[in-house]
Design a protein that fits this description.
The chain has 439 residues and is mostly helical. The chain has helices spanning 24-44, 48-70, 73-98, 104-119, 145-150, 155-160, 163-184, 201-211, 213-221, 226-240, 244-255, 262-276, 278-302, 304-313, 330-335, 339-362, 368-385, 395-408, 418-425; strands at residues 6-8, 432-434. A two-stranded antiparallel ribbon has the order 1-2. It starts with 5 loop residues before the first strand and ends in a 5-residue tail after the last strand.
Length: 439
């Protein structure tokens, strides 16, 4: 009788958040690291809203670490996430909103909405101070409309009218819609077990993302960059499904908020051309041009001078009033050397953008993760060499990287030969199946 050959198959335990998040120690260490970050802001941050957020978030993250360490695993995950969201997002947002504290850009957005409804232009004709400048394109004023309509006469109006609330809601809706688009389009990577392909794995990662300092801090104190991040994620997801028109409309909306959305237009175009061909790309380009023109061009005609001065000259350090975006990044350090340094920074910025554009031609992104990574890299280059920038701007590329992996799933690992599976797993296989062979 023939020998019975052995074939080893390693059983993968079901982990709703994936293999990494299922480990209790990773959860505890992650929440403790978030608590340390929040405590550092509470002690050393300059702006008062940041210190308020730091005190509340540190308590919330410590509570999350406690629950993750002591409770049984299913309850530990749910309660630790709830505690982090309460301490890192809900608590500081309510406190800052009811006490009227926020970063200056929140008041700029709300004032621009009042100007838009009253004069037809979201820009002051003759700005004199930093807070008089509106560095955003006209679409950002829409998030301040609730404040104009509701006022701030009572607590409920102060909460529902705050621009941060609507920025955060737009961000979450876009992220969830992007995950839905990826899942329904069959774009998720194949996982190692049916349980890992379950319905709520990406949404568990999204909950972690929203409760982390990466999103919780800007959501509580400012929030104006979150809608742009959400729209970029949604545009990539729609493009990966071949929805060129939908991606074009989404990115037209993003470009009506901030001109820093322009790199996303190029990356999504490269993704569409690679996956779906020239016809879909042509439709995408025409729809994006028409949508952007419809959203921006009327205001450019009515207030061309204030728009150019406040949206383009002010953020790059060429306006009469210096921009407060002065983090010691390479571009800013060069610009501080004088006019020649400013032109050198712009030259490096152009060269970096050209290099990223060339990479899109030579090696276009093929899926959601590749497109998000390429866009994140391009934005990091732009923020690094811009004549004026803040460290907080890097929140956008980090969100892109994390969201793409939450939506598309972890990378597929090639199957190991039977004789290597036990070695790669660091121990004997958990399941052995024998197959009889006739000889």
């Amino acid at each position: 009788m023939a020998a019975l050959p052995l074939r080893f198959e390693r059983a993968v335990p079901p982990r709703p958040f994936g293999a990494l998040a299922g480990r209790r120690g990773v959860w505890v260490v992650g929440w403790l690291a978030a608590a340390a970050c929040a405590a550092a802001l509470a002690l050393f941050a300059g702006p008062l809203p940041h210190r308020v957020w730091g005190r509340s978030a540190a308590v919330g993250y410590l509570g999350a670490a406690f629950f993750a360490c002591t409770l049984p695993r299913p309850r530990a995950r749910a309660l630790s996430l709830a505690c982090a969201v309460a301490g890192g997002v809900v608590g500081p947002f309510l406190h800052l909103t009811l006490t009227g504290q926020a970063q200056s850009e929140v008041r700029v957005v709300e004032r621009s909405a009042a100007l838009l409804l009253g004069t037809g232009s979201p820009y002051l004709a003759a700005p004199e101070t930093v807070t008089d400048y509106n560095p955003y394109l006209p679409g950002m004023a829409l998030f301040g409309v609730p404040r104009v309509l509701l006022g701030d006469g009572d607590a409920l109006a102060r909460i529902l009218g705050d621009a941060r609330l609507w920025c955060a809601l737009a961000f979450v809706v876009c992220l969830v819609a992007g995950c839905v688009a990826v899942r329904r389009g069959g774009l998720r990577r194949r996982l190692n077990s049916p349980s890992q392909q379950g319905g709520w794995a990406p949404y568990g990662w999204l909950a972690i993302l929203v409760s982390s300092p990466l999103v919780a801090l800007p959501a509580a104190v400012s929030g104006v960059d979150l809608p742009l991040a959400g729209l970029c994620c949604l545009g990539i997801a729609l493009a990966a499904r071949g929805r060129g028109g939908g991606a074009a409309l989404v990115l037209a909306g993003a470009c009506a908020l901030k001109w820093t959305a322009l790199p996303a237009v190029a990356v999504v175009g490269a993704l569409l051309a690679f996956r779906w061909g020239g016809r879909v790309l042509a439709r995408y380009v025409w729809v994006w041009l028409a949508g952007t023109a419809a959203l921006v061009l009327p205001f450019a005609v009515l207030a061309a001078g204030p728009l150019v001065d406040q949206v383009f000259a002010f953020p790059t350090g060429r306006a009469a009033v210096a921009t407060p975006a002065a983090s010691p990044l390479p571009g800013r350090l060069l610009a501080d050397l004088g006019p020649l340094g400013w032109y050198a920074a712009v030259g490096l910025l152009v060269c970096g953008g050209a290099a990223v554009a060339l990479s899109l031609v030579l090696r276009p992104p093929a899926d959601v993760v590749a497109a998000a990574d390429r866009l994140a890299f391009g934005l990091c280059v732009a923020f690094s060499f811009a004549p004026a920038a803040r460290f907080g701007y890097f929140t956008l590329p980090l969100i892109l990287v994390v969201w793409a992996r939450a939506a598309a799933g972890p990378p597929v690992r090639a199957a190991l030969p039977p004789h290597e599976r036990s070695k790669g797993a660091g121990g004997p296989p958990s399941q052995i199946r024998r197959e009889a062979c006739s000889g």
